[in-house]
Amino acid sequence: MLPQRLKEARLRAGLSQQRLGVLAGIDESTASARMNQYERGVHTPDFDLACRLATVLDIPASYFYTVEDELAELVLNFRSTKK
User: Are 45 and 31 in contact, with CB atoms under 8 Å apart?
Assistant: First the structure.
């Protein structure tokens, strides 16, 4: 779930892996590689980093962890209606 949703959210935001990682506080020299590993599911970001990524992407962190795809979309839609 998280790898696919992270990549989709990043692409929607128009950010490169490196840019997203840097904006979330990952060192510039490793940001691209780490984000690539997260998006491929090789490693999983800890909860704190997932929350920072969500903040940068302007989405609720729960979007990454919701099991049902339909509910994940509702989470995104709910966020956009609150603005």
Answer: no
Torsion, CA 63, CA 61, CA 74, CA 2, rounded to 10: 0
Sign of CA dihedral 46, 55, 83, 76: negative
pLDDT, tens only, 51-73:
999 999 999 999 999 999 999 99
Q: At what angle do helices 31-40 and 2-13 cross, to 10 degrees?
A: 130
What is the rounded distance in angstroms from the CA atom of residue 74 to the CA atom of residue 25? 28
pLDDT for position 77: 87
What does the alpha-carbon distance between residue 46 and residue 25 come to, in Å, rounded to a whole number?
13
